[in-house]
Structure prediction request, 143 residues.
Amino acid sequence: MFIDHISVYSDDPRKTKEFYETYFGGESNQGIKNEESDTIAYWLSFGGGGTAKLEIIERPEEEKMGENNLDYLRMAFMQDSKEEVDNKIKELEEAGYQVLKEPAETEDGYYSGLILDPDDNQIELIYGRPGGLHCPTYKQRKR
Prediction:
């Protein structure tokens, strides 16, 4: 069993798609239009040997929650070094994205920082040892 994809809602899916393309190297399709709800969804894949995809779905007008939107997601992107975590957090902050947590060592031996994407989803940038607590099946994925 494996994760095929994670879906997030977006009030501006094109802007969110461009965020993941620009800062995380995502590769997107041209978008799929849902005629019934008059919304669009983009599917992004990322390098690094993984197969999981990110689906960015336009939130239908009747489901927009405004300022009190409580449905959010947290995703983590593994970096190759602590310096890459630091550099990516700095790059995103300079581009105007909110940093929720500056990079630091965590209790479980990882190094991570946390930002918000354009839809207020939490994006964690992490560096740590393969096969640690967050990746018990690492050896299986490396085949």
About this structure: Strands lie at 5-10, 27-28, 32-34, 39-45, 53-58, 74-78, 99-105, 111-116, 122-127. The longest strand covers residues 39-45. The helical segments are 13-24, 82-94, 138-141.
